[in-house]
Amino acid sequence: MATATKKKSKSGVKLQPLGDRVVVEREESEERTAGGIVLPDSAKEKPARGTVVSVGDGRILDDGSRSELQVNVGDRVLFSGYAGDIFSIGDEEYLLMREDDILAVIE
Q: How far apart are the first and last CA of the chain?
């Protein structure tokens, strides 16, 4: 069974997602193109990859047990561009999403 992991953000707030939700910290977007052109903030695409910082207990199944999550804290993941809800704690920005929104784990 997956164990819920609380993560303290840099501002000292503990993050504990519920059920099958995970908290992901998005990776920084590229500052330059492959050809060396510097991109302004308005032209940067938000990357669809990040690091899992906290996981929930898992979804409750029909028989009352909990399903085990397939991702763990520290996993680098790919997710769809419109996945999750963005929220900020202090100056840190996080995504709260369901485990189903994660497409792959980067190894």
A: 22
CA atoms within 13 Å, Cβ hemisphere of 74? 1
Instruction: Return the SS3 of 38.
Output: strand
Q: What local confidence, expressed as pLDDT, does residue 39 receive? A: 62
Domain segments of the chain as ranges:
15-27+43-106
Report the candidate in 54, 4, 45, 59 with the shortest Cα–Cα distance to residue 25: 54
Q: Residue 52: how many CB atoms within 10 A of its CB? A: 23
| 15-27+43-106: CATH superfamily | GroES chaperonin (2.30.33.40)
Q: How far apart are CA 78 and CA 96, in angstroms?
A: 14
DSSP, collapsed to helix, strand or coil, labels residue 71 as coil
> pLDDT tens across 21-57, in order?
999 998 876 666 667 766 665 555 667 889 999 999 9
Helix (H) or strand (E) holding 50, with range, is strand 49-55
Cβ(4)–Cβ(14) below 8 Å: no
